[in-house]
Each structure stands twice: as C-alpha cells, then as structure tokens.
Amino acid sequence: MDQIYNNSYLFMAIFLLLGIFLPFATIWVIGPFLRPHNPTKEKISTYESGVEPTGDAMVQFNVRYYLFALLFVIFDVETVFLYPWAVAYDNLSSFALIEMVIFVFMLAVGLAYAWKKKVLTWD
C-alpha cells in the first residue's frame, strides 16, 4: 500500500514539473518558430481605435474616480455576503441576524463617513 502512495507522489511531481516547464518551453523555445516575425512601421505603431494617437499617453485621472470605484467594490462585496445569508436565513439562528446587523451597520457608518467627508460629491 505504501508503494502506491509513493508512485502517486512521483506522478504528481512529474505533472507539476511538466505544468511549469511546458508553458515556458512553448513561449520561449517553440514560440519564435511558430509565430510570424515581420515588423513593419504600421505594425509597431501605437493603435488607438483606428485613429492616429495624439497627445501624451500619460493621462491623469481625478482621484474621485478611484474613490467611487472603491465604494462600489465595497458594497458589491457586501451583496456577495448578504445574498447567501438571506437564502439560508430560515436555517440560521438569531445570532446570525445580529452578526448581519452589525455588518450592515459598519458599512453604513463607513458610507456616512464618506458622505461627511464629501467623497460622494461630483464637483
């Protein structure tokens, strides 16, 4: 029986090494022979929706975009946690209700703080 487990680890090690080696071999060894290499001026130029790019590529965005995105992610994750809880609510105890009330309260406090700091204004 011990011999079977040793063989299993050997096969697992072989698959692990192949899983690491084959992608690298495909990209760096075999890839240059399979893909065409014909750079032209049009191929190496920057592509921007079929239009010649103008201006600098470095564009600064307002930090409020990131704050809105962060708030969206926070409340999206809240929905991910809230949905399974609501589906299984009948099978849960009252302790689960108290935990969810605390969770939603903490998120509401965070939203009130963001509102107070005027993060949600679009001026």
Low-confidence stretches: none
Number of helices: 4
What is the count of distinct domains? 2
Helix content: 55-70%
In sequence order, what are the helices and strands, one letter per element?
A: HHHH
Biggest β-sheet description? none
Task: Give the quaternary arrangement of the chains.
Answer: single chain
Overall pLDDT score? 83
Shape: flat
Question: In angstroms, what separates the terminal alpha carbons?
Answer: 72 Å
User: How many β strands by DSSP?
Assistant: 0
Helix/strand/pairing category: mainly alpha
Task: Briefly say what this structure is.
The protein is mainly alpha-helical. It is 69% helix and 0% strand. The protein has 2 domains: 2-44; 63-116.
Description:
Helix content is 69%, strand content 0%. It is built from 4 helices and no strands. It has helices spanning 2-34, 41-44, 63-87, 94-116. The model has no long low-confidence stretch (mean pLDDT 83).
Descriptive key words:
123 residues, 2 domains, 4 helices, mainly alpha, flat
How are the elements arranged and paired?
Elements: H1 2-34, H2 41-44, H3 63-87, H4 94-116
Helix pairs in contact: 3-4
